[in-house]
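Weekly modeling sync, notes
Attendees: S.R. (lead), two postdocs, one rotation student

Agenda item 3: backlog of single-chain predictions. S.R. asked that every request posted to the team notebook include the full sequence so nobody has to chase files. The rotation student volunteered to paste the first one in as an example of the format we agreed on. Action items at the bottom.

Example entry:
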Amino acid sequence: MATNYENKRSYKRKETEADRDLLLNGMKILLIDDDESLTSVYVTGLAKEGIEVTVASTGQDGINKLKAEKFELVVLDQVLPDTSGFEVLKEIKSTDETKNIPVIILSNFGQKELVKQAIDIGAAEYIFKYQVEISDVAKKIKAVLAEEGEGN
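Predicted structure, as returned to the notebook:
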């Protein structure tokens, strides 16, 4: 049986998650991925979670949009038609204007060395794109942004 302390702690945790959802509602993210069917699903699904998504289909298009607009977070495919997602990540993390924007890597590849490489370059999270529900992606986005907010 839960103690009063545990009940209060549990309530506080739920309250904090609800508050976080309200604070992050309406956030704007950049999704860099060339898979039109996947980006369509992400745009629709994340909109239902209160997340506004702008799509770029190439690495260069993504970099250009990052320079032109303000985004709270980038979701970046590892394989792009013009470059690798890791090269885009390196550019994001080496530019003063964008280095503090958290980046989540989306990938079909799950090798531990690729995950480690992404994190070492500066990715905040690594998601296997076809093994996850949209609601889980939204939770990861919100968790990464909450962590970034606490760190500032």
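Discussion: group reviewed the output briefly. Helices lie at 4-24, 36-48, 59-68, 85-94, 112-121, 134-151.
Action items: rotation student to repeat for the remaining queue; S.R. to check formatting next week.
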